[in-house]
Fold this protein.
Amino acid sequence: MGSPYTGRFAPSPTGLLHAGSLVAALASWLDARTHGGQWLVRIEDVDTPRCVPGADQAILQQLAACGLLPDGPVLWQSQRGEHYAAALQTLVDRGWAYPCGCSRKEIESAQAVARHSAAVYPGTCRHGLNGKSARAWRLNVQAVQAALGLPAVTHWNDRRLGPQQQNVSQEVGDFVLRRADGLWAYQLAVVVDDAAQGITHVVRGQDLADNTARQIVLQRALGLPTPQYLHTPLVMGTNGEKLSKQNGAKALDLQTPQAVLSALNAAAQGLGLPAMPEPTAPAHALDQWTKLSRSHR
Ligand code: GLU
């Protein structure tokens, strides 16, 4: 029998880990350790144009420098296209995925007419391409919900944020499974891979929380289990915005054991854990925080 807990950290190699990404990595590692579970790493390199060559290996080295070592083989999403294709085919066969021929411009003007908020796809191609050629593939959210008897509002309980809900059809619309440029969409890849890796607990940054309802709908559509979710606090930059690679967050400095400990201490602080005194070795700090997290369960 496998471990009842399998967690993961799933970085996109669009740059090196920064202070914000280490909070999510440390939280997922500690949660796995606290539950006596396994911790896996998945490199989310589906969006190839945004990936930085060599960043995947550099991230794995950064994690290793912090003592965060995966308990199983690392998965690269760029090598898993056939699994995403099989999942899309399943959805097409069930009549729940359809090709979309809309350009970004057409979607924007349809939104303006329908007064939809900017992010909602108005469903233009749901009932046919109207002579346009297929570009992307989308999930017919209402068809899935109707066929499976699912409520229009998807509810889930976040272990940190509490009860959450979203009406995916109204707030997001039929979301993309395969992009117009032929790349696999994050939502499909993450759902297929969380199931393939047997992930029971997802611990990731709060900026990803509003993807959860879409992922739950997709899990239902594919007959896959839903993990438990915990979204970690975000680290804010001095400008008051979330630290991210896009707004130039610096790569972690992990050159010396002191630098590693400072980086881990900053991440622990972001999780409300106490800092360890300077002479402590990083491995000792990880051990202490695991004990502390266990006593707070
Ligand atoms: N690859 C995503 C990121 O780096 C994380 C996806 C997830 O944890 O579900 O932001």
